[in-house]
Amino acid sequence: MKREEIDMSTEYMKENGFYEQLEKTAVVPVVVLEKVEDAVPMANALVKGGLPAAEVTFRTAAAADCIREMSEKCPDILVGAGTVVNLEQCKRAVEAGAKFIVSPGYDDAIIDYCLENKINLIPGAVTPAELTHLINRGFDITKFFPANLYGGLKATETLSAVFVGHRFMPTGGVNLENLPEFLGSKSIIAAGGTWMVKPALFADGDFSKVEEMTAEAAAVVKKVRG
Following DSSP, what letter does each residue of 167-185 receive, concatenated? Predict the structure, then answer.
């Protein structure tokens, strides 16, 4: 079937509640897992802490299996795949049960596959040229990474003033201290963060620190977003 004969609209992400859920959660923990046995304890800690979402990055060989574990055993968490840079990774993530895909940049093969199969996708963009391309593909939300190197909140607010209505999910340099400022901006739908899920926090198999720091972030979400 030719591309022009396929419904390539992004409207399904609004209709299925993904954008709404993303905004409500407000902070998406960006998780790097080396061991499959850490997947369920991580998911449980995030849910108990008040941030029921995880972007499991394809930076390790265990990523797909970790997504599968969370998807099958932790129904209360919205689990997705991050650092997806090619179509093969994208397909593996979806087959494992990922409910959304996040890419640090964008790839048209990934975009075509996700739109054709109605898969939630947040592609990455930091320049006006990249944003123009993605907006013309129908995207209202993009990842902004690394936020701290590309101008942070000032950059996203400047870009959203030009690309009216477009919103961002910044990742990179977001922390507990600047989280209120990010979440208080209309240009931000949600923020990605690693500070509450750094591997050193659970290296001994104890996820209590993850839950504690997640709860701190969740408290900021409640204060800023209500």
Answer: EEEEBSS--TTTHHHHHTS
